[in-house]
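Board notes (copied after class):
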Amino acid sequence: MSLAVLSSRALDALEAPEVRVEVHLANGLPSFTLVGLADTEVKEARERVRAALVHSGLPFPHNKRITVNLAPADLPKESGRFDLPIALGIVAASGELDPAAFAGYEFAGELSLAGDLRPVRGAVALALALRREGSARTLILPPDSAEQAALVQGVDVRRATHLLQVVAALRPGEAAVPLPRARAQVLPQAPAQPDLREVRGQGGAKRVLEIAAAGAHSLLMVGSPGSGKSMLAHRLPALLPPMDEDEALASAALQGLSSSGFSVAHWGRRPVRAPHHSASAVALVGGGSPPKPGEISLAHGGVLFLDELPEFPRAALEALREPLENGRITLSRAGRQASYPARFQLIAAMNPCPCGWLGSFAATGKPCRCTAQAIARYQGRLSGPLLDRIDLQLEVPAVKPAELLAAPEGEPSAVVAARVAMARERAMARQGLPNAELDAAGLDEHVRPDAAALAFIEQAATRLGWSGRSLHRALKVARTIADLAGEAQPGVAHVAEALQYRRALPG
């Protein structure tokens, strides 16, 4: 038979739509044509497939007109994932395999010139698409990709190291040699993370870090160089509760789309992304052609740490406003639109002025040399709408050397993490999501301060000229503080503490 049809999958943002790989052999002038909106990487499959088939001793029809169609025609196809199905299609169309043997299988894999199978991006997304559709097909992948796809429960994933191994598995009857089922590797122990006990002093900052972890709140720390902002930020991941299966799969699928890929050794760990302040808006929110996820999506379910916040390009910072509000980013281009989840926890740090020493003379003896205009211009790099979306804003004061050396060790991260876990469990049992993700209707239903606390926050918001968003975010923080205290509803003390964590920048 001169026609073979196989199933594979492309990548379209986090989706993995099915692609029908149709291979046809015909008489005529010898040629090898690929159609179906194939990218350059896909078109280069012609040479890889030709060499892999010849080197493996499989027939390649040099005297035939080979046409490969990747359907649907309007869906862009990229990467070398279609090498394996194209090669199998040529083998079947040449009469070496029965095309009916492909029923019930999906194939993806890049071929080396010797026929070895190499990993492909987005293996977890492929398996998730199969499970979402309720398909009973078996997914055949290269070893590393198969181990990643095997993390998705309920999907039959088989691993193959060479093209000949796949061909042998598709032989009829007793001649078939079944492929081994892929198993996720035994997960190693998580590496030791920096411990909060190493931070001496800064009791107020550590309290805010605990609140941020308990409610998944965004946090901005303002302080002079060396006051401990970065040290505190690097210790936040150790306070966060472990990821559930859905969060871990979403994070793994997003990591698999990046250029660095996903490793099974990182399964279940909350991602921590810390881009340099020279990062562009595209690097932060995603983009390109075809669109790729940016740092905010790769930090989904984890922490995005932006050090030296005012040094980031203004356009990059303003692009964070929508994801901070909605937990999702939609990239619209002339040809296509891609949407990625971006439910990250923003932790930012900055100096109070260009020289960095504003307000720290008593502790450091270094006077601030900046003029009032320079301070206002520096702090003005952060727009009001962006600051409005950051739940917790805290000044981290400089500590005198004598006080720093005399200060005892603080609480270990494990002790604080236990309190955070209990507070997060209360929130999840009450409303099914962290306090920071509550919408207006959820606030009305689940955040009900007592009468005295309501009157107090209303008076404070009026005097401070808060927007409705600032008021809502202060209420969410008060709800988290009440959860940490084990209280059923926020009181005046909880609201008062939440108010002082939305102070304006000094100067």
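Comment from the instructor: The longest strand covers residues 18-26. The two ends are 79 Å apart (CA to CA).
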